[in-house]
Amino acid sequence: MKEVPLYRHPVDAVLHSKICDSVRRVVDSNRYILGEEVYSFEREFADVMGAAHCVSVGNGTDALEIALRAAGVKASDRVGLVANAGFYGSTAVRTIGAEPVYADVCDSSLNLGVDQLAGLFVMRPKVIIVTHLYGRLADIERIVLAASREGVQVIEDCAQSHGAMRDGRFAGTFGVAGCFSFYPTKNLGAIGDGGAIITADSNFAERVRQIRQYGWSSKYRNELEGGRNSRLDEIQAAVLRVKLPYLRAWNDARRHIASRYNSAFADLPLQCPPPFDESSVAHLYTMRVANREAFRRFMKEVGVATDVHYPVPDHQQAAYASSTTVGTLLVTDASCNTVVTLPCFPGLTDEEVGHVIDSVLRYFAKERV
Known about the structure:
This protein has twelve helices and 14 strands. It has 369 residues and is of the alpha/beta class. It has two domains: 13-245, Type I PLP-dependent aspartate aminotransferase-like (Major domain) (Aspartate Aminotransferase, domain 2, 3-Layer(aba) Sandwich); 247-368, Aspartate Aminotransferase, domain 1 (Alpha-Beta Complex). The protein has an eight-stranded mixed sheet with strand order 1-9-8-5-4-2-3-13, sandwiched between helices. The model has no long low-confidence stretch (mean pLDDT 97).
């Protein structure tokens, strides 16, 4: 068998033809920036996510930065977040000149939990970014309730959680805003970079629209501080419009594969993720293994690609001499040393899933000898 890749784009002949037609439509229109494809996608994505407003931007990290600016975050403000999510939120915070304050995560979900909030509130953050890591909703309802009591706004990082829901409510609709990435490997991916912000607040949405286009109130009139150029282009919007109707089925496929893994690995000496219901869209299947490098070497030998999401926690990144943490981040540090990601994406064949499962079982059988 050929190597099982970590990701392969789920494009059959019909979908490929639709994507090509959508690109051709944009080229023929001779309109490439902020045209009908962008505005149509914004309406359609907002409708699917159950949001009043959607404003598209250049990428997911821009979405976080622009949402923070729209929430009033400025240099020297503090922003609470986790340190195990790849530095994307930290990049947005530090670009503004604000100070990230890192809290630990829950051992089961690796997401920020309610128990971590008390210490975070002592640091008086202006905003908390809640990342729904690996596609699994955090305990977002209780986090938002607790934050509202403290006068702290919550921005959701939904870069890995397109379509995750609880009790009929989608990721991105609990806090003041939800930020999405459409990087090609996301559950809803473009053919390049892209991002979006959803919100129920019309004033917030208008500030986002201004910030993404230089802070303009009207053409060439800059009235809002922090303006920049961050726009989803027409081609990416057109492709996303084609792919959006497939999102639910693709998420179901991811959950099915992840559930097969959990069932197969239940008795092995590793830590599986929690069960996969509608609150998780299984963006990544990430388990925890004690001797990660030995495990990855074996998987490579048998033709299964793996990766680590993410190996270096934000508070230990070499680019920054020091970081502010709420206590010791024991779960964060331990998980960054043990997490490993297996292939889990729509289009992964039954034979490939079986090979991944068989390979993991063989590794642990070998370890017992």
